[in-house]
Amino acid sequence: MKLWQGRFDKALSADADAFNQSLPFDKRLYAADITASVAHARMLGKCKILKEEDVKRIVEGLEGILSDLKAGTLEAEGAEDIHSFVEGELTRRIGDAGKRLHTARSRNDQVATDFRLYVRESVDRATELLKGLVLALVEKAEGALEYILPGFTHLRKAQPIRGAQYFNAYSEMFLRDLGRFRDLRERVNVMPLGSAALAGTSYPIDREYTKELLGFAEISQNALDAVSDRDFVAEYLFAASLSMTHLSRLCEDTILYTSDEFGYFEIPDEYSTGSSIMPQKKNPDLPELVRGKAGRVYGHLMAILTTLKGLPLAYNKDLQEDKEGFFDAEETLFSCLTIYTALIEKLRLCPERMLQAAGEGFSTATDVADYLAKHGVPFRDAHAATGKLVRYCIEEGKTLETLTLEEFRSISPVFGEDILRAVTARASAEARGSVGGSSHKAALEGIASVKRRLAAF
Ligand code: ARG
User: Fold this and answer.
1) Is 434 a catalytic residue?
2) Deepest in the core among 73, 122, 396, 399, taking most CB within 10 A?
3) CATH architecture assigned to 5-103
């Protein structure tokens, strides 16, 4: 029997029923649904809309259902959605009192409330996992304080950078993601319950009281908006999408840097895979999978935006489409954050190879130009002279590090002995002491700054 059967002569046909159902996926909301119903019943009792004895039976009945569902001795099935299921089961257990629970509410404000409770928890879980990842990155940064590796632009060697600075860069991205989740949590944490179907309710309810019971920070201020707003889902999916973007970039770096061609990092065997045909292969399947899964989360963001864009006020059944994508997105985000945190913890760094590569490709040419500029040569002329020097090196098969003082002087008499020390990769990185730069001190301050901001979450 449907909750709404009264007006109909015939039962819903089996195929329509199956199509209309959300129980197979919204049963995940069972704990939120029951928690919200308990609070609603208590409020109805406090406001004398329901008798205390009914409230007592309702609350006990709901608590029994909750523990049975948790224990797995009760299966949520055979109803249109989780709300119908819980109410039906309650009525089966306690009789008429169960039928009074739906006084002064609608499934429209009920589902909006349940989902906000669920998303709020999901935000907290995402926050914990992101914090864990940043912590792993901080540890890596600390371990890489003395390591120098090539920094790239256009995927061409640009300037030497410090290992700590490299890992800090990703910490910065994930700190911003943490900030996004924190910001959106405020907007999730608003209670729609009491909006009823769309117009509010004629019962003398106390929404502030229900709000307190459910730990919401505020109550919604417009019933029409409250039952049809799913901004919070879109916001979550955007924050999840951007977190996946950052993860995916980290994956791309890992894939490149662990290849033979780069060889800066190594993924340990426990996190690598092989090939069924090529016995020599060690493949980066895990980072590739995480990179691949980013698209899936973006898809869910597009889907919710598209679902929302044409909806007339207020509730429409289209809104039932808010859930499956969300569940898949949070699961994807959680599993990716978890596996990547483990992978970062286990990632091995190869400092000799990094340092050697950092010195290749004339990556300290900017230091040569800076040297001249600091000795009075206009930077543009210094740039041109250094370009000539690089060309000379290419022709002679030399590197900037193997040039003699005489060779430097043949391009400009300004060069002194100290240029020979300035063109090493380590000196180049050390020279960049600006805030956020690659010097030891700057990288150390970068780590301290990440730690400070992480502690605020
Ligand atoms: N399963 C529905 C959903 O997820 C619950 C709300 C139903 N409301 C209604 N007016 N049919 O949106």
Assistant:
1) no
2) 122
3) Orthogonal Bundle (1.10)
CA atoms within 13 A on the CB side of 403: 32
- CA–centroid distance, 175 to ligand 1, in Å, is 36
Is residue 142 within a helix (H) or strand (E), and if so which, with residue range? helix 107-143
What is the DSSP secondary-structure string of 162-220?
EHHHHHHHHHHHHHHHHHHHHHHHHHHSEE-TT-TTTT--SS---HHHHHHHHT-SEE-
As a whole number, mean pLDDT of residues 129-143 equals 98
183 CA from centroid of ligand 1 (Å): 28
Domain boundaries of the chain, sorted by first residue: 5-103, 108-356, 365-423
107 lines ligand 1 (CB under 6 A): yes
- For ligand 1, atom 2, name the residue with the nearest CA: 320
Average pLDDT over residues 302-326: 98
Asked whether 316 lines ligand 1 (CB < 6 A), one says no
pLDDT in tens, 385-424: 999 999 999 999 999 999 999 999 999 999 999 999 999 9
The CATH architecture one would assign to domain 108-356 is: Up-down Bundle (1.20)
Residue 18 Cα, ligand 1 centroid: separation in angstroms?
A: 14
Residue 156's beta-bridge partner residues?
153
Of 154, 202, 276, 434, the active-site residue reads 154
Pocket test for ligand 1, best of 111, 227, 228, 322 (most atoms within 8 A of CB): 111
Strand-strand pairing, 190-191 and 218-219: parallel
**124-128 mean pLDDT:** 98
The class level of CATH for 365-423 reads mainly alpha
DSSP state for residue 274 in the 8-state scheme: -
Q: Whole-number mean pLDDT of the chain?
A: 97
Q: Is the CB of 112 under 6 A from ligand 1?
A: no
Look up tokens 């890489």; give the residue. 144
